[in-house]
Design a protein that fits this description.
Elements: E1 5-11, H1 15-35, E2 38-45, E3 62-63, H2 67-70, E4 75-80, H3 87-97, E5 101-104, H4 107-124, E6 128-129, H5 141-147, E7 153-159, H6 162-174, H7 178-187, H8 196-199, H9 202-215, E8 226-227, H10 235-244, E9 246-257, E10 260-271, E11 283-290, E12 294-301, H11 305-324, E13 348-358, H12 363-373, E14 378-386, E15 389-396, E16 399-400, H13 401-412, E17 417-426
Parallel strand pairs: 1-2, 1-4, 2-3, 4-5, 5-6, 8-10, 10-17
Antiparallel strand pairs: 7-9, 7-11, 9-10, 11-12, 13-15, 13-16, 13-17, 14-15
Helix pairs in contact: 1-11, 3-4, 4-9, 6-7, 12-13
Bound molecules: NADP nicotinamide-adenine-dinucleotide phosphate (NAP) and L-homoserine.
């Protein structure tokens, strides 16, 4: 039997698109063999035809007309690596409805428009595959959907933003300031076009919404995620974390609890012995706890041209196999439940707190009384001199977040307290 040739169109030829071209060129015959059909890139949509792409491209490959891809009856698979939720969404919905399978790396689109995308795929009998949208080259969506499919997922703890992990690593190891470390991350090309999305935790929240939706079979959108970024983390906090045996990480956490699904992104003290504490620089990792397999960790490069292309091309190969065996749509929407979200105030955590207080007899007792009155029990207290003030560092036992916040309001009102300087959760001690 003669081998089938599957024609692919690609929307975008930036960092990820270039990687896809390079990977198809480097490993083409092997990929064809593994997928069971020839994979040919027929057309690529760009904005600017004259830009030097640093690639040897066949004449006529590039176009500025999306219709050359979306209306070409030969093109059966569309790769979307344009980004954004404007034209990209419009083109992807059109491709899916017309029966073309779509592979995308676009976390903004998938996290916000998942419902529409799966409805369009169901309408067209096509695949929407998005492994590259979370943690770049690390396989995590396929493991959650397939390899761990027999399990109930109990929790996910992820480092899924490379920029902030790079910044925190440089602050911890070299004592760099946050602004300087961010400048480095930008010049190395890790940061988003608007790096606020990285440092304010929004990029991680989008990726977490995608992972949590799959893990808990419930549609979770970025607005459902309680988010805090890393802008308030100081050199003092990093030094105290080291002193207490922790490393500060921006964690993305999704956990099924009796009171609903707890989804949040925030900086956290992670015990030095936890596998996530050792994930440094731009590396990403997702630590999954499930009822049968137990603890698993997925680690690797969460961004960049070739790691992201690796995930995109593997999805293309899956789409090819589904076409060959007439099974597009095999991996449809997994959100068949509608579990409630846990209100953030009801979530229980341990907390690290740093307070600047007057250095006078009775101050510690007054503060301890307010904590006690609000149901906050203290595990560790350290006091250090900070000029003519004292710096009081406290690590609490597990406490309901709403109680801790009320205690801090009351403590902030004490005349002897100058500042509640830092509030950071302690995570990862139970797993
Ligand atoms: P990029 O370098 O900015 O490339 C975007 C490409 O899309 C460019 O080739 C651009 O054309 C084209 N494009 C954008 N808008 C267009 C429009 N309206 N019409 C035609 N072409 C258009 O982006 P990227 O870094 O490759 O990221 C692509 C996607 O992958 C995003 O969704 C991103 O979030 C996701 N992603 C990226 C990474 C990463 O490491 N970069 C990792 C994981 C996921 P011109 O070249 O002509 O301007
Ligand atoms: N800005 C993102 C990061 C790129 O730093 O992880 C990959 O999505």
């Amino acid at each position: 039997m003669s081998r089938r040739e599957i024609k692919v169109g690609m929307l975008g030829l930036g960092t990820v698109g270039r990687g896809v071209c390079r990977l198809l060129a480097a490993n083409g015959p092997l990929l064809d063999q593994r997928a069971g059909a020839g994979i040919t890139l027929k057309k690529v949509l760009v904005r600017d035809l004259s830009r030097d792409r640093g690639l040897a491209l066949p004449p006529g490959l590039l176009t500025t007309n999306a219709g050359d891809i979306l209306s070409d009856p030969e093109i059966e698979i569309v790769i979307e690596v344009m980004g954004g939720t404007g034209s990209a969404l419009e083109y992807v919905l059109s491709a899916l409805r017309s029966g073309r399978s779509v592979v995308t790396a676009n976390k903004d689109m998938v996290s916000t428009h998942g419902r529409e995308l799966f409805a369009a795929a169901a309408e067209g009998g096509s695949d929407i595959l998005f492994e590259a949208s979370v943690a770049g080259g690390i396989p995590i969506i396929t493991p959650l959907k397939e390899s761990l499919a027999a399990n109930r997922i109990l929790s996910l703890h992820g480092i899924i933003n490379g920029t902030t992990n790079y910044i925190l690593t440089r602050m911890t190891r070299e004592g760099l300031g946050l602004a300087e470390a961010l400048r480095e991350a930008r010049s190395a090309g890790y940061a988003e076009a608007d790096p606020a999305a990285d440092v304010e935790g929004l990029d991680a929240a989008r990726k977490l919404a995608i992972l949590a939706s799959i893990a808990f079979n419930t549609r979770i959108v970025p607005q459902d995620v309680a988010v805090e970024g890393i802008m308030s983390v100081t050199a003092e906090d990093i030094a105290y974390a080291r002193e207490f045996g922790f490393t500060i990480k921006l964690l993305a956490i999704a956990r099924e609890t009796a009171g609903g699904i707890d989804v949040r992104v925030h900086p956290a003290f992670v015990p030095d012995g936890h596998p996530l504490a050792a994930v440094s620089g731009v590396f990403n990792a997702v630590f999954v706890v499930s009822d049968a397999a137990g603890e698993s960790m997925f680690y690797g490069r969460g961004a960049g041209e070739m790691p992201t292309a690796s995930a995109v091309v593997a999805d293309v190969m899956d789409a090819v196999r589904h076409l060959l065996y007439r099974a597009p749509g095999l991996f449809g929407c997994t959100c068949f439940e509608n579990k409630p979200l846990k209100p953030p105030g009801l979530v229980e955590s341990r907390f690290y707190l740093r307070l600047k207080v007057a250095d006078r007899p009775g101050v510690l007792a007054a503060i301890a009384r307010v904590f006690g009155d609000n149901g906050v029990s203290l595990a560790q207290v350290v006091q250090k001199q900070a000029g003519d003030l004292a710096e009081l560092v406290v690590i609490s036992h597990r406490v309901r977040e709403a109680w801790l916040r009320q205690a801090l309001v009351d403590i902030g009102g004490l005349p002897v307290v100058r500042e509640v300087a830092s509030v950071i959760r302690v995570e990862g001690e139970d797993h």
